[in-house]
């Protein structure tokens, strides 16, 4: 069966998929935003809380990965937290630390970021369905749009943590490098329109103008 033609479960339903955890990146130093993106208010919550709540409808356990100064404490987030071991390595280190934390418990993890608050749980379910179609040698499921690679909205085997660490130690910092370095299956991003017609799950909030547009959209302006 083509995964893109399956009928999605109601997005508001919480049904964790077996053997699938998640890493939610809490954001870096937010230099373009000018303040911590993870704490920005959204939907009577924050960006980070919104993403964790949506991802939790599909994935369990969840770990939030942050930079060394990350000290987010909030009872709404019933997740585990890890901080970067390697400094100034960008989201690649967040992926590594999150996968390493989850590796003893699950084989696969969805990786998402706190600055993509419109992530659709059905998109995560659809992405996970591609895992079943791949051989055991598949190490990642990564959406692509031409030459653009969405490595921060993707699936990775948790066992890749050790190899990502080796990449970091060798000086690699590019998340998109994972799409070519590993045995990754590339999925045309437009296949996800079946559950996310406007592909808002891939929209990042990078600066104040992005955030303002998000709030205006939320308020129907």
Write the layout of secondary structure elements.
Layout: E1 20-25, E2 41-42, E3 45-46, H1 47-55, E4 62-66, E5 80-83, H2 91-102, E6 108-113, H3 121-133, E7 140-145, E8 148-149, E9 154-157, H4 161-169, H5 178-181, E10 184-188, H6 208-218
Parallel strand pairs: 1-4, 1-6, 4-5, 7-10
Antiparallel strand pairs: 2-3, 6-9, 7-8, 7-9
Helix pairs in contact: 2-4
Average pLDDT taken over every residue: 88
**From the structure provided, what is the oligomeric state, counting identical versus distinct chains?**
single chain
Total number of helices: 6
What string, H for helix and E for strand, traces the elements in order?
EEEHEEHEHEEEHHEH
- What proportion of the residues form beta strands (DSSP E)? 15-25%
Total E-strand runs: 10
Rg computed from alpha carbons, rounded to a whole number of angstroms: 16 Å
**Which class best fits the helix and strand makeup?**
alpha/beta
Q: Globular, elongated, flat, extended or rod-shaped: what is the shape?
A: globular
Low-confidence stretches: 4-8
Main sheet overview: 8 strands, mixed
Compute the separation of the termini in Å.
40 Å
Helix content: 25-40%
Brief sketch in words of this structure:
By secondary structure, the chain is α/β, with parallel strands linked by helices.
């Amino acid at each position: 069966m083509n995964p893109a033609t399956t009928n999605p479960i109601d997005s508001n339903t919480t049904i964790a998929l077996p053997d699938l955890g998640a890493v939610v990146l809490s954001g870096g130093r937010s230099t373009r935003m000018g303040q911590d993106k993870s704490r920005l208010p959204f939907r009577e919550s924050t960006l980070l809380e919104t993403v964790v709540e949506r991802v939790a409808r599909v994935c369990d356990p969840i770990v939030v990965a942050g930079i060394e100064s990350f000290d987010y404490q909030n009872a709404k987030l019933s997740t585990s937290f890890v901080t970067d071991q390697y400094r100034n390595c960008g989201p690649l280190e967040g992926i590594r630390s999150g996968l390493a934390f989850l590796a003893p418990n699950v084989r696969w993890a969805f990786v998402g970021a706190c600055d993509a608050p419109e992530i659709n749980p059905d998109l995560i379910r659809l992405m996970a369905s591609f895992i079943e179609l791949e051989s055991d040698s598949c190490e990642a499921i990564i959406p692509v749009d031409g030459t653009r690679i969405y490595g921060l909205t993707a699936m990775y085997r948790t066992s890749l943590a050790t190899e990502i660490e080796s990449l970091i130690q060798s000086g690699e910092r590019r998340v998109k490098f994972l799409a070519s370095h590993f045995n990754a299956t590339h999925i045309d991003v437009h296949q996800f329109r079946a559950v996310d017609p406007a592909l808002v799950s891939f929209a990042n909030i990078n600066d104040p103008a992005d955030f303002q547009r998000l709030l205006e959209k939320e308020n129907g302006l």
